[in-house]
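Appendix B, example 12.
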Amino acid sequence: MADAGAPAAHGLTVLAGPTAVGKGTVSTFIRDNYPQVWLSVSATTRAPRPGEVDGVHYFFISADEFERRAAAGDFLEWAVVHGRNRYGTLRSTVSEAIQEGRAVLLEIDLQGARQVKAAVPEANFVFLAPPSWEEMVRRLVGRGTETPDEQQRRLETAKLELAAEPEFDSTIINDDVQRAADELVSLMGLTPNPR
């Protein structure tokens, strides 16, 4: 049973998957094409980048405030990323969106998905998978944002992340962003947009 501070499961979908599978790309497509879906905004201790708006891209908070809120149980999930900054999903924002009747989507990593599952096991957990291992390697290398050593480390992590697929309620193959997004929206109980 979910704890009393957890949001109601109705309307909550968690999307996770391995590195370079395209979670962010699918979420961006949904944000741009499905205004009825509320995408969670994470809190972070990192400084805003140029053009980022507090409350839109992230909730920018101090490390002290993050620690205080984590200790108070204010996060559904949180993690330290790359050993430096903290990121987390605030329970209050998710609960408010669900209470408003919104379909809520959390696009998070596997560690975060496991934390949410412990808090809200009734939520809908969706695993985004690559069409093949070779395609995932191509996507990771093709982004050009990591060094060869970092790419290798991420691919080793991806092997472990792919093994977590059975922990999820559903799997979507990300062979086409629009198709994957439409399938996810359908799993959320919404009707995909006609094209």
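The first strand starts at residue 12 and ends at 16. The chain has one domain: 12-187.
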